[in-house]
Amino acid sequence: MAGKETSDKFKKLGLKVIDDIEKRQNPNIDIPIRALSNIIFDKKTGQLGLGNKSSKRYFFNVAHSKKFMQTLMVAAYSKGLIDEQIHTSIRDMYYALKRTLPDTNENTVDEQSETDPLIVDIEVALDIIREQMHLTTDRKGIVAGNVIIKDRGDSIDWSKLGSGGWSIPSTVEEIDFKKVEADYVVVVEKNAGFERLHEDKFWQKQNCVIIGTGGQASRGTRLLIQRLNQEHKLPVYVLTDADSYGWYIYSVIKSGSMSLAHISERIATPEAKFIGLTISDIYDYDLKKCIIKAKEVDIKRAKELLKYDWFKNNKKWCKEINLMVEKGVKAEIEALSNRGIRFITDEYLPEKIKKKDFLD
After folding, report:
1. Which pLDDT band holds residue 39 (cuts at 50, 70, 90)?
2. Domains, the chain, ranges and CATH?
3. Reported pTM
4. Beta-carbon contacts of residue 127 (< 8 Å; ≥ 6 apart)
């Protein structure tokens, strides 16, 4: 049904352009503006979103005509994918649309950097997400836990995939959860951290789901986190390095990002909590020998975080960020290994979760 609804939205877009032509009007597409000036933070939902500003893309406009054509090409291609019930990568789409117009030297598309933004334009214009357009990207993120899903007809048990875990695809909205037996979700910034938790069978001992994002969480991973939280009521705890970039990774999972503010409500998890690492942890857990001197770019990024509404209005977060700026230090998750290779799974995480020692 979801596929039909998306296909119908593309059909409605096409019919609107045809109607403009029949009425002898300049064909146009109304697209919400994605500039910083139109991004707002909704304190009620705890998410970033778009304001109500929009602009029109016209066919009979020298500055718009090529992009107008490209927008309709991407829309038509995506509708074809949906109707044929197949998926393809955004790279494949770029090559499929790349051609030279007859009797000219003009190409429909020169670089993929032209088509990628158009996908986002269509997302905001039709209120859909790229995954509903059947467009995919490389897999990123891994998960393990006592969960069974059905993915394109195959039953997959996240507890029986050896050392690798389940590789998270970009189209997780299509999977069905058949069994979810867990008390919470732990999201780890680094794959190395995931490996430590997985080898120690942390998910089994603590009855939880563990997810490794491999850096900034992909859209598919963020959607999976949201689904586990909203559909199965699992608390979400995020573990990153004690630095401004790790904290931003948590921020994106919780409140969304400026570049994807238009779909925050579909992939962000406002109920997510930050479980560490903090600058205070360095001193509370006697990790002073493991600190790293923060670079100028780290300090600059930390000061930027202090300007975000969801950080600057939180006393605990202001304390941690200011500590980093004042002391000029940071630390990695791996610093916990100084207390013992299994310290993170045997003491640090269980203790923090039990005491509810996290930042909101």
Report:
1. confident
2. 2-136 (1.10.10.10), 142-355 (3.40.1360.10)
3. 0.89
4. 9
